[in-house]
Amino acid sequence: MKLWDKGYKINKLIEQFTIGKDAELDVLLAEAEVLGTLAHIHMLESIGLVEKHELGLLVKELKNIYKSLDKSNFIIEDGIEDVHSQMELLLTRKLGDIGKKVHSGRSRNDQVLVDIKLYFRKQISEIADLVKILFQTLQFLSEKYKEYLLPGYTHLQVATPSSFGLWFGAYAESLVDDMIQLQAAYKITNQNPLGSAAVSGSSFPLNRMMTTKLLGFDDLNYNVVYAHMSRGKTEKALAFALSSFGATLSKMAMDICLFMSQNFGFVNFPDELTTGSSIMPHKKNPDVFELIRGKCSRIQALPNEISMVTSNLPSGYHRDFQLLKEIMFPAIDEMKNCLVMANIMLMNIRVKENILNDDKYLYLFSVEEVNNEVLNGMPFRDAYKKVADDIKNGKFNPSKQIHHTHEGSIGNLCNKEIADKMMNVYNSFHFEVAEEAIEKLLTKS
Known about the structure:
445 residues, 3 domains, two-stranded parallel ribbon, elongated
């Protein structure tokens, strides 16, 4: 079944090539397709294109389909092009000609737009929840190990004293900025394109604000041509957010791979969370973090990949957009898996104590000595030269006491302030608005 079928057969190779992976990937859009159709038929009934008794039959059947999705038995049958065709087929099998009315005032173009936005909206909510959990773990570890010092590095050379409190806390605060990127993606996503039809709207007197409220969108994509221009732009906005999280997780994973090596020896993990070598009996490999690093590095390429697919396209719908599902859907799953695995690993991290007692870290305290001289009245440039001369002449014997008190330093991590920033961002998504609207739509008769 093809919604565009005009009575002639298409070449099989052409059909396979143009459908691509839609039959596989569109299963993920089935829930959104039901919700979008539910909102649409309520609107159609309000403008007289669906009778009241027809609405009742359609609503009942759509809710039955929605319930069946929980059992993971929704499939797109052989010969069916996409989720839109499959949904209409299910309705017409059950309800006959009444099922054919659901497409009035819609095109597959705005159907897939609204499906993707509803799907992304739910995925963003799930990602935000996973990020919040990882953030809380990092903050917990920052507080737990705030007294544990470790070397800070520049150019991969030992630089100044740092702490595990600072290190864990740094990645926690990085997630806050990543979450702001995700919030921007959510705001772009959470606008209703339904009713834009093929590209320029419909001659039916559609009530687009009604479907906007029924689906819990914040607002409309008002201009119907722009609604279609948002295809690709929405994906890119989410891709930038995923890329931002990818940068944070990839960098953290790289740190941990270094810190686990015998040359550093700062952290380790229980045996059951590492892997071994087929030839070297002593090996405990950080495979989880190596895979997080690799997967998240690949996720950082998402914005560029989407740009390459969509660049130089004129306004309107183009089949190129179909490829975005193949890029974005797996990437979303990868990001969620990386967030889950990073949290599992960090909850089991073991941190080494007294790292800075090793003489190889003696020069970490050079800046502390310079600052001590300055506090005792010596000009900074003179103090710098004095300590440099002491190091050169083998006379450097620093105090290893750390007195950092300013905001965000070793002795004043500001974890509460960072937590407040995170919660302000998280709460400002207002996921509950969309959730309540969908719950109400599913109970509406």
